[in-house]
Specification:
The chain is mostly helical and 85 residues long. It has helices spanning 9-16, 26-30, 54-62, 67-84.
Length: 85
């Protein structure tokens, strides 16, 4: 019953995904992933193991309650950059 009664399990899973899930790259949401900064150099971090998806970036930007997440992600981002430079 309900408006989503005919959706497949895959469609329902996609609807339930949120930018705060652990497999989403938080750095990609706030600006860009440090793994993309210096490819093929001594500072190359390799490829990012998390998902980079514009859908989550748009979801993040549209969320009015994202301030707490954003502050946390920026702190983690700056820490990662400082540790790898």
């Amino acid at each position: 019953m309900g408006k989503d009664r005919n959706k497949s399990q895959t469609d329902q899973k996609i609807m339930d995904e949120h930018y705060s899930m652990p497999d989403i790259c938080k750095y990609f949401l706030i600006s860009f992933c440090p793994h993309d900064l210096f490819p093929n150099t001594k500072q190359d971090l390799g490829s990012c193991m998390k998902r980079h998806d514009e859908k989550f970036k748009k979801q993040f930007e549209a969320d009015t309650g994202r301030a707490d997440f954003e502050i946390q992600y920026i702190k983690e981002y700056l820490s990662t950059i400082n540790d790898n430079i």
